[in-house]
Amino acid sequence: MYILGIETSCDETGIAVYDSRFWESNEPAHLGLLGQSLFSQVKMHELYGGVVPELASRDHIRISLPLIEDCLKKSQLKLPEIDALAYTKGPGLAGALLVGTSIAKSIAFGLSKKIIGIHHLEGHLLSPLLSPELKSSSKLHLFPFLALLVSGGHTQIMLVKDIGVYETLGETLDDAAGEAFDKTAKLLGLSYPGGPAVSQLAEKGHRGRFQLPRPLLHSKTLDFSFAGLKTAVLTQVKSSGPMSEQLKADLAIAFVDAVVEVLCKKVNDALTLTGCKTLVVAGGVGANTQLRDGLKKLGKKTNAKILYPPLDLCTDNGAMIAFAGALKLLKNPSLADSSLGFDVKPRWPLSEVLS
Ligand code: KG4
Ligand code: ZN
C-alpha cells in the first residue's frame, strides 16, 4: 500500500510517500520511505519572533500542491497509484490544519482513495521506528516501549502499549521543553526557532557561573514544569545588565543542563517504573545534542535501547504522518474515514486517538 502523508499543523509543509510493505516484510522499515518533500516557513515567521497563524495557512496553500507533485516525482509514482492518504488532523493551528485536511480529503474523494486523519504527536511518537537502527527482527518485540515526546508544544512521557494505545505517564504542567528553549533564546537575543541556537551557544559555555533550578526533579510524579526555569533565566538576564557573548553562553549551558537533567531523571524513573527496555525519543528537542549525550549515558546505565528518528525527521515532516497512517491502516483498516467533513482537532489529547 502506497500512502501519501500530508503535514500542515504549524509552520512546515511536509509531504511524503511510504510503502507499507516495508513494515510488514523483513525489510528495514525506513526503506519504505519512497520520497519526501519539505518546505519550512521559518524564515518568514522569524521576522515576527514566532509563528503567525494566518501567514502560516496562506503559505501552506501556496506550497502544498507543488510539494505533492515534487514528492510524487521523487517517489516515481503518479497520484492515481497512491492507495491511501494520511493527513494531520490535529493538534495544531486550526487554519493550517484545514489546508492539509482539505487537500487530502479532496484527493481522496476525487480518486476514491482511503484516508485517515493522524494525531501529530502520534506521528512524532512512531517516527523513531523509521530509524535505520531498528532491526527487522526487533519489529515484532517492540511493544510495550516508552516514548519521550519533547517538542515546541508538548513534553510527555508515554507508555506505548501498541499502535494507537498510549498511556500518558507524565507531562508538563506549564511550558513545554521546546517552548522553554524558544523563550530562553529570546531572552538571550537569539533568533527563532531558539532550540538549535541555544544549544549551539551552550557548547561555548562554562559550567558553574550560573545555578538554575531543576523544577520537580525530586517529585514523586513523572510530570515536568519549565515555566520557573524560564523565569530564573529572566531574573539572571535582568540582574546581569549588558551581557557579553561568554556570559550568555554560560547562562545557556546552565539552562540546557537543567532541562537535560530533569528530562533524564524522569525518563530514568519511568524506565524503572515500567520495566521497559526501549525508549524512543521524538519531537524537535530530540535533535538536541546535549539531551542525546545525557540519554546515551542513561541508556548505558540502565541497559535500555534508545531509538531516535533519523535527524531530518526529528522536526515536523510528512514522513511521520505517512508512516503513522500506514501502521494504523495495517492494524485496523476500519479506521479509514469515509466522511466528507473537513473536521480538524486543534486540541486533541493523544490518549483519545482510535486504534
Ligand atoms: O516537533 P517540532 O518540530 O514542532 C512541534 O512543536 O510540534 O519542535 C519544535 C521545537 C522548537 O521549540 C525548537 O526550538 C525545538 O523543537 N528544537 C530544539 C532543537 N531543534 C529544535 N530544541 C533544542 N535543541 C535543538 N537542537
Ligand atoms: Zn511537531
Distance between the termini: 19 Å
CATH architecture of the largest domain: 2-Layer Sandwich
Give a quick account of the main beta sheet: strands, pairing sense, barrel closure. Answer: 5 strands, mixed
Structural class: alpha/beta
CATH class of the largest domain: Alpha Beta
Order of secondary-structure elements: EEHEHHEHEHEEEHHHHEHEH
Provide a quick synopsis of the model.
This protein is of the alpha/beta class and 355 residues long. It has eleven helices and ten strands.
How would you summarize the topology of this molecule?
Layout: E1 2-7, E2 12-19, H1 21-24, E3 33-40, H2 42-46, H3 53-75, E4 84-90, H4 94-111, E5 114-119, H5 120-126, E6 145-150, E7 155-162, E8 165-171, H6 177-187, H7 194-203, H8 227-240, H9 245-274, E9 278-282, H10 289-302, E10 305-307, H11 319-331
Parallel strand pairs: 1-4, 4-5, 6-9, 9-10
Antiparallel strand pairs: 1-2, 2-3, 6-7, 7-8
Helix pairs in contact: 3-4, 5-11, 6-7, 6-8, 7-9, 8-9, 9-10
The structure holds 5'-O-[(R)-(carboxyoxy)(hydroxy)phosphoryl]adenosine and zinc ion.
Zinc ion binds at residues 120, 124, 151, 283, 316.
Description:
The protein is α/β, with parallel strands linked by helices and 355 residues long. The protein folds into 2 domains: 2-126 and 316-352, 2-Layer Sandwich (Nucleotidyltransferase, domain 5), CATH 3.30.420.40; 141-308, ATPase, nucleotide binding domain (Nucleotidyltransferase, domain 5), CATH 3.30.420.40. Helices cover 42% and strands 18% of the residues. It is built from 11 helices and 10 strands. Strands 3-2-1-4-5 form a 5-stranded mixed beta sheet, sandwiched between helices. The chain has a 5-stranded mixed beta sheet with strand order 8-7-6-9-10, with helices on both faces. Helix 3 packs parallel to helix 4 and helix 6 (177-187) crosses helix 7. It starts with a strand and ends in a 24-residue tail after the last helix. The model has no long low-confidence stretch (mean pLDDT 95). Bound molecules: 5'-O-[(R)-(carboxyoxy)(hydroxy)phosphoryl]adenosine and zinc ion.
